[in-house]
Design brief:
Dipeptide-binding Protein, domain 3, four-stranded antiparallel sheet, 11 helices
Amino acid sequence: MRVGESGRFEPVLAEKWRIADDRRTLLLTLRSNVKFHDGSPFDADTVSRILPEGLRSFWGSLVENVESVTALDKRTVKITFRRASPLLQEMLEVVMRKPGAAMVGTGPFVVDQNSTTAFHANRDYYFGSPRISEVQVANFPTTRTAWAELLRNRIDMLWEVGPDALDSLTSSTTVSLFTYVRHYQYILAFNTEAPSLRSSAIRRALNLAVDRDALVARALNGHAISSSGPVWPRYWALRTQSSPMEFDPARAAHMINAGRHGAEPMLRFTCLTLTDAPYERMALELKRQLQAVGVEMDVRALAANELFEAERAKKFDAVLIDTISGPTVLRVYYAWHSRSEGNQGGFGNATVDSAFDRVLGAENETAYRQAVNDLEQAFKDDPPALFLAWEQRARAVSKRFAVPAPEPGRDVMTTLRLWSPRNNDTRFASRN
């Protein structure tokens, strides 16, 4: 199943499902005409064999919450969890691949046997063969180089358009831009064991000190959405009117001054970040905003491998990074619960863990809604990070191709099987 923008599941390989009376069991009905790329059938027996390992590779030890996966008949799969929990049911967005053949899936394109950068149409795809017969992938040293090749009509699509190039491409008459909000956030994560950031009151003050709208405008050219917490804002269990993060620098300065003792120097900490331009610009803007409330944030840019090692070793005060945060709460749990394998930086704290445990223990949707909203509040009361902005991304596609508009909020890549050439005649192109 795939996850919709509300965090609810939508049918893909399972065409429908229902929850049994015990609320611990899901009964899935598979599509009848699905085949793997090698022609073998995708049926309930196969799913019952490969799903447990797929869950383990995706979710780690969380799979221990799955009691059994069994085939009831050719098209029906029974999945029983060890407890009734809406949160655990969100595990079922795993990728299904045939055992022992990492590149053999069920999707619309098949990896070329002789190349990992070429894909051809799956003529037996259950929704019909793609209109494009082949996709070739080319790598470029920089996004700017790839952007130039697209404008010269030497490539047909740019996988990702950075914030710097987005405005320049908007006026192009030969390229269509498709923007969407990615399920990742820019965050400033804290090491709550660092002396300068141990106090939850200090971290709440830092939350108040950051003007997220100004950060998006100045550091990201307006190409992001200000954040108010870790949970995807359209998530079905979140209150409809999720309040924006409060910005009150005067109150922040007062709280920071109140937290100092006697002749202590001003609050100071070091922020590690990546050497890429968006992160460095965000770091400088955060540094400017925090200076206004009497906080000195020293910035140190590192290569990705160096930053990762510093996180694992807890050798940081704070890190400015991006992390997955939606559209399900299980993804937030995996990234932020202190005992999760997905939490490589050891982020989080006891307050947040306790709130997560209540979410996991909620057995029905009423209790679950309350627990999810309590989780948001826990992140504000004892913040392990500043949640800054949801990333906005864009794909650029040559107007030599007719591209159906994706569903609202969806990445245009989800419609790739429906793209079709316009016979290389740009006269057919239209504004997107």
